[in-house]
Amino acid sequence: MSRLVVASNRVGDITGGTQSGGLVTALGDALRDGNGLWFGWSGQIVDTDDKLGLTLERQGAVTIATQALTEEDYAHYYLGYANRALWPVMHYRLDLAEFDSAALEGYREVNRRFARALAGLVSADDVIWIHDYHMIPLAAELRALGLENRMGFFLHIPFPSPEIISAVPDHAWLVDTLFAYDVIGFQTEQHVANFGRYAEETAALVTPESHPFRAARRKLKVRSYPIGIDVEAFKAMADTPEAEDRIRRLKRGSIDTHIIGVDRLDYSKGLPDRFRAYRRLLHLHPEHAKNIVLMQIAPPTREELAAYADIRMELEQLSGAINGEFGDFDWTPVRYVHRSLARDTLAALFKGSRIGLVTPLRDGMNLVAKEYVAAQDEADPGVLILSQFAGAAADLAEALIVNPYDADEVALAMHLAVGMRREERIERHSALLERVRQRDVARWRRDFLRDLRDGTGGATAAAEG
Ligand code: ADQ
Asked: What is the pLDDT of residue 457?
């Protein structure tokens, strides 16, 4: 079977145990089974080009290849273009997007350099799986170096509607580079449709000069591959004696209903709107006073960017204001933790909380929603409240689906969840759990790799699953 090569901005520790999440969980087995290679940024920032290096490290059967970024690369490629331009646009926040040509140039340059480093490490029959918005043009740069390998791309965040993506000054170039792949994967059918509509509406503009990859008409497969989690592993973390002990500590005191939110402190996650909806609940239903607590775990992320500093201030002000207005000597309505917690602690908190509040304004998928479902006690499960704008909503219809912009609707959902009878909770939860199990991370990986390997003559071995 052809070797798997993965490229993503950050690489994970493949030896990490149950505490690792994200791509490590998702791709670890596939990389290990095929003596794979994982390429990405080392996380280091150096002051000059001559210190970039290319570090190769063996972790069991897997080779980890990393390269540093210069301070300028970090400012332009990572902060400037990926996170100040693409991230907000893909999450429908044109008001927060900033475009400048130096950032774009930095993004192109780093992808060109990554391509040169990676090209020296791959053999002709390797299949290459590239991840996320930092590396959209990587295949195009690899093709420019003459690589004919099968290449696939998975976008973890939304592909927005054509009206939105067209606001990117260089969208024609950016989207054209997607046509250098053999397989493009999106999280949902809606993202596939958005991409299709963009391609259709701009088809008349395609010339070999303006859109070299589209004009070349490589056979391209575009599909949705909804990402999932390792359900049994997450469930097991919520079922240990340590988890039970944490749940007991969480539930010490007289609170009946714990509401949990777990999100990186990112403006796409809708945290201020969520807090305002909770405030609305406390206004409309004073009977919940002293019986309910919202615990929000929100670790820092991308703090160098002003939009992230702003959202932190806003959230701190809001939680202070809610506690000041409603709190009492024996009750703190909002508990806000601006820190990352261990995954087994999260699993216990999910299990101990009657309501899981997942209300992003826009999200590619949202794995917290799936983790919350997996962690529940099947005999007495909690209620998931889920934004209609999370990719996960396409699969998880038995959650209470809400419009996160509508504080009244979210407050009503919380109120209904507090009073929901056990039979209804069990009915909704068992349907959700079945869906989360069906669409798990193994299936995501297997489906994508099957399509990526299709045509290489390589068998889709059971080991991939
Ligand atoms: P994210 O935007 O990071 O991912 P999400 O899918 O929710 O969003 O994944 C976050 C992960 O980090 C979860 O596993 C969660 O448990 C963990 N996490 C969050 N807060 C934490 C905390 N305080 N401590 C420890 N762990 C924490 C992007 C896209 C999503 C898409 C994923 C995967 O934005 O839409 O679902 O990639 O494709």
From this structure: 53
Residue 19 is predicted with a pLDDT of 62
Q: Which of 6, 333, 318, 334 is nearest to 138 (CA)?
A: 6
User: Is ipTM beyond 0.95?
Assistant: yes
Distance CA 373, CA 175 (A): 35
The residues annotated with a catalytic role in the active site are 156, 363
Q: What are phi and psi of 196, to 5 degrees?
A: -60, -40
Could you state, in order of their start, the residue ranges of all structural domains in the chain?
4-228+442-453, 231-438
pLDDT given at position 12: 81
pLDDT at residue number 462: 34
Written as one string, the DSSP assignment of 94-106 is GGG----HHHHHH
Given this chain, do its domains 4-228+442-453 and 231-438 carry the same CATH topology? Answer: yes
The answer to whether residues 19 and 344 touch, using CB atoms and an 8 Å cutoff, is yes
User: Tokens 């601006």 identify what position?
Assistant: 338
User: Which residue has 């002709």 as its token pair?
Assistant: 124
**Pocket lining: 367 vs ligand 1, CB cutoff 6 Å:** yes
Note the pLDDT of residue 463.
Answer: 33
pLDDT at 418: 98
Return the pLDDT at 16: 65
Q: Is the shortest distance between the CB of 156 and ligand 1 below 6 Å?
A: yes
Q: What CATH number was assigned to the domain covering residues 4-228+442-453?
A: 3.40.50.2000
Which of 23, 25, 367 to mutate to test ligand 1, by most ligand atoms within 8 A of the CB atom? 367
3-state secondary structure of 441: helix
Which atom of ligand 1 lies closest to the CA of 341? 24
pLDDT at 18: 59
Q: What is the DSSP annotation of 129-176?
A: EEESGGGTTHHHHHHHTT--S-EEEE-SS----HHHHTTSTTHHHHHH
> What averages of pLDDT result for each successive group of 10 residues across the chain (465 residues)?
93 72 81 90 95 94 96 97 98 98 98 98 97 98 98 98 97 98 98 98 96 96 97 96 95 92 97 98 97 97 94 97 97 96 96 98 98 98 98 97 98 98 98 98 96 69 33
- The CA distance from 1 to 456, in Å, is 9
Neighbour count for residue 163 (Cβ, 10 Å): 12
Among 312, 345, 365, 441, which residue has the most ligand 1 atoms within 8 Å of its CB, making it the best to mutate?
A: 365
Topology of domain 231-438, CATH: Rossmann fold (3.40.50)
* Nearest CA-CA partner of 222 in 153, 140, 275: 153
Burial (CB count <10 Å: 0-12, 13-18, 19+), residue 204:
exposed
Q: Tell me the CA–centroid distance for residue 98 and ligand 1, in Å.
A: 24
Instruction: Provide the sign of the torsion angle of the four alpha carbons 259, 262, 265, 270, taken in this order.
Output: negative
